[in-house]
Amino acid sequence: MSDKPAGFPKPSSIEVAKGAEAAQAAYPYYMQFAPEDDERFWFYNSMHFPEPMHHFDMVTAEAAYCALGSSNTRVHCLPTTLGIDYRVINGRVYIGGNAVTDPAEIERRTEEFQKRAFYYYEHWERLYDQWKDKMRKLIADAQELPKPELPEFEPLENVHAGKGVASNHYLLETYHKTLEGYFRMWHHHFEFLLLGYGAYMVFFDFCKKAFPEITDQTIARMVAGFEAEIFKPDDEVKRLARRAVELGLEGKFAGDISAGDVLASLEQMGEPGKEWLKELETSRNPWFNVNVGDGFYHYHRSWNDDLSLPFSAIPGYAAKIKAGENLDRPMEKLKEERQELIDGYRDLLSTDEERGAYDQMIELACRVFPYVEGHKFYCEHWYTNLFFNKIREYGGLFVEHGLIDDAEEIFHLTRYEVEQGIVDVMTSWSNGSPTRGGKRFRAMIAERKKAIEIWAGMDSAPALGPVPDMIDDPAIVMLWGITRENLDIWLNGPADANSNEIRGFAASSGIAEGPARVIKSVQEINRLQEGDILVCQVTNPTWAPVFQKISAAVSDIGGSMSHAAIVAREYGLPAVVGTGQATARIQDGQRIRVDGARGVVTLL
């Protein structure tokens, strides 16, 4: 009899942490596991939600999976997959896909998909330009939303104009508009994204059949070397570093000096300082509307809110500029390599029909692929930052009216509780009585703060429920890096647990050796030193300024087309992703070797 486990723990077997029961129960009912969920496979989405979720922040999962499912299931009608279900337990988000397996239904959906998706592929550039206009309009609308505040008396001009609606009504209207805009943004986010992946996946499948020995990384390199907005913030930091060197100001950024002190010092510098500050303003709008995380947590603030991340990168960039090093991404090299690979593999095809199909597929993949990263700047970063800052304004309103003690505490409330608080404030202003929710909110916030602490110290099961016979959703493999092999490692431990090697996806070629810096959260990235190898659950494109310090990157989660893998290739940095166990097995400071071409990390 085999002692191999039959599967991962059932969701119903996961106990809520002692002391966090009320916090768990506060998440909306549709996010809670139910008995019928025991029969399904779920995995912890540590790529997008690597930290316990504050109650308000769960709106990011709500809005994202609502829009993703709509795009998959109803708009573009993907033939073999519907949307994604999500649940939250002990602050961690688990997701499970809904597959289409009936051949007749797949055929029916394929007909719909072709009528819809092919139109997008044929008119990609026009529709994408239209998409940018829609996003800019959505951003402008969010920027124009009024600050939620209440005067002592209704302004006289409103009364004399016969406006007929008092100021407290607009607290509710603005809140609804804020939420509506955020949900709408996620629909825009997925309008092109899945089609971008789809075009690449069709080409990927063709290559795997036509060239059995080809690696995932080689196929990925055939679409490398592209321009996308998500790389612009880092390009702007490099530009500012160049100007600092030209103006003789690079010394102002050295050491542990705060961003505020740097700004104050530059203002007193006369013309050179004023010139650099003018350049900073050019970069800040819009390119510093990028946050230090992936856009899913309220406390992952934008560079505009906290200049310390971009400023901390300037000394390293300035030193390399003075040493005559080239800071630019190796675009020409990537493009040349891309074309050599495309031509080389094309020559291996034996018929004109195969070559024609190959040409068509790679042309489409290269046309649509820049969107896969480009959309992130507008959606997860610029818009999401505006959204959370608007909620922060409501936090300030709640402090002013005695509901909470600190504006940041509003994020411990669900979006439904925030609306209750708004109506409490509206009522208080209208009837002259104090707000009624302060005692209630303070007790809930204290419970939830404690719960976040408890959950942050707990290990979470990487997956729940029965093990699927196969992982046939290419997005789950390419984006999250979840394969049957990985599931077996999660279940039974690595077969080579005593080996000094850890295997993952070969994300970006090259070999690097150095001390491992195990980074568990965004707050720790300032621990990275020159030459370190970044080891983390998942890397983030907006950590690009620290890429100039590190020599390689290793992640627990992620496939060959994860954001981490794409960015590593674009920067020419060796990377191994989807190891499933790097942060558990590698000690902080331990010397390791990363072989990005083979997907192997060696503990030295």
TrEMBL record:
Organism superkingdom: Bacteria
Pfam families linked: PEP-utilizers
NCBIfam families xrefs: PRK08296.1-3, PRK08296.1-5
InterPro entries found in the cross-reference section: PEP-util_enz_mobile_dom, PEP_Utilizing_Enz, Phosphohistidine_dom_sf
Domain PEP-utilising enzyme mobile: 528-599
SUPFAM superfamilies the UniProt entry points to: Phosphohistidine domain (SSF52009)
Protein name, per record: PEP-utilizing enzyme
